[in-house]
Amino acid sequence: MQEARFYEKKADQKVQCHLCAHECKIDPGKRGICHVRENREGTLYTLSYGRLVAQNVDPIEKKPLFHFLPGTRSFSIATVGCNFMCLHCQNYDISQYPRVHQGRIIGEERTPEDVVGDALASHSASISYTYTEPTIFLEFAQDTARLAREHGLKNVFVSNGFMTPQSATALSEFIDADNVDLKSFWDDFYRKVCKARLQPVLDTIPRLKKAGVWVEVTTLVIPGHNDSDQELTEIAQFIKDVDLGIPWHVTAFHPTFKMMDRPRTPPQTLKKARDIGLQAGLRYVYTGNIPGILEGTENTYCYACQELLIERLGYTIRRYYLQDGKCPKCQAAIDGVWK
Predict the structure, then answer these.
(1) Contact 213/177 with Cβ under 8 angstroms?
(2) At what angle are helices 229-242 and 267-280 packed, to 10 degrees?
(3) Local confidence pLDDT in tens for the 339 residues of the chain
(4) Cβ within 8 Å of residue 323, ≥6 positions away
(5) CB contact at 8 A, 131 and 157
(6) Fewest beta carbons within 10 Å, which of 102, 220, 230, 334?
(7) Which of 293, 250, 253 is nearest to 275 (CA)?
(8) Cβ neighbours of residue 192 under 8 Å, at least 6 residues apart?
(9) Where are the beta strands (DSSP E) in the chain?
């Protein structure tokens, strides 16, 4: 347990957290929506600092990041808790753990030095803060990431983008890449399905991009919720307006947690979403969670001449033709962070 950052003290021992866009006002003895930040006699504490519930070595493509050091490993960590309550969360057993276990915080106690040491020992090129929402354990991520950079490691967030300007600015100082979930383009979806709001996410994506963080965007396409041509077009247009070189991942939903009433996403729906993104002018659109079913839709092609640059099957790179970040055929510079 450590004193939290990104908060201010109020009258009557109340505090206001500024870590995420909920900006919870917390009474003494109470916790914020994330259930891992608690007001104790007028001081806000982060209860999950260094309490890791997941530690794995993943391919960077699993984040998914296709244009950030492809083919490398990323040492991936998480704590319990989340500032969203998504009905379709695939990691609900850890993201919602404190909420359904009377506030209990579990996890193995680790230090930033431990994490960086394990990342180096696993020959990873980066550390990913992922699985649950990393914004809620920003203090530990911040301390770990700064040490990681001293040892030549990159730092990656996989986040819902529900940040404040304060936390997003701080994030951009120590994170190299962020895959942001843009779950829908309708605020009603965010309120009903995630218990959150859309606008902070729309603010975070360009803010991170402008600050120099490599950004990719993922949309989990859920039948009957966010799969209409109109909504997919609006998402694609928004991403293009930020930067047409931002890769967009349209991924397949499968029934889970409290959303068992929806079918799996048909492959043809993802193909439609990919076509919409490319027609809107995005340079790179990828399908996910259905490896090998839609031929070629996981590959990277040159936006200028359509030359095959990276051939993938799921998280595996089968062929790699990029040369110093450029297309070998027409020499177009391909957006991304390359080895």
Answers:
(1) yes
(2) 40
(3) 899 999 999 999 999 999 999 999 999 999 999 999 999 999 999 999 999 999 999 999 999 999 999 999 999 999 999 999 999 999 999 999 999 999 999 999 999 999 999 999 999 999 999 999 999 999 999 999 999 999 999 999 999 999 999 999 999 999 999 999 999 999 999 999 999 999 999 999 999 999 999 999 999 999 999 999 999 999 999 999 999 999 999 999 999 999 999 999 999 999 999 999 999 999 999 999 999 999 999 999 999 999 999 999 999 999 999 999 999 999 999 999 998
(4) none
(5) no
(6) 102
(7) 250
(8) none
(9) 2-3, 7-9, 15-17, 25-26, 37-40, 43-46, 51-52, 54-59, 73-78, 108-109, 126-129, 154-159, 177-181, 214-221, 248-252, 285-288, 300-301, 308-313, 316-320
Distance (Å, whole) CA 339 – CA 154: 12
Residue 154, token pair as written in the block: 């990159």
> What tokens were used for 93?
């057993």
Structure tokens at 271: 């193909």
Strand 126-129 and strand 154-159: the pairing is parallel
Peptide bond into 64 cis (omega under 30): yes
Q: How far apart are CA 111 and CA 55, in angstroms?
A: 13
Query: What CATH number was assigned to the domain covering residues 51-299?
Result: 3.20.20.70
Other Cβ atoms less than 10 A from the Cβ of 140: the count is: 24
Q: Does the pTM exceed 0.85?
A: yes
User: How far apart are the C-alpha atoms of 162 and 165, rounded to whole Å?
Assistant: 10
SS3 22: coil
Lookup result for tokens 């391909």 = 334
The phi and psi torsions of 38 (rounded to 5 degrees) equal -125, 140
State the span(s) of the chain assigned CATH 3.20.20.70.
Answer: 51-299
Residue with tokens 């916790």: 31
β-pairing, 37-40 vs 43-46, is antiparallel
State which amino acid sits at residue 60.
I
Given a contact cutoff of 8 angstroms between Cβ atoms, the answer to whether 59 and 131 are in contact is no
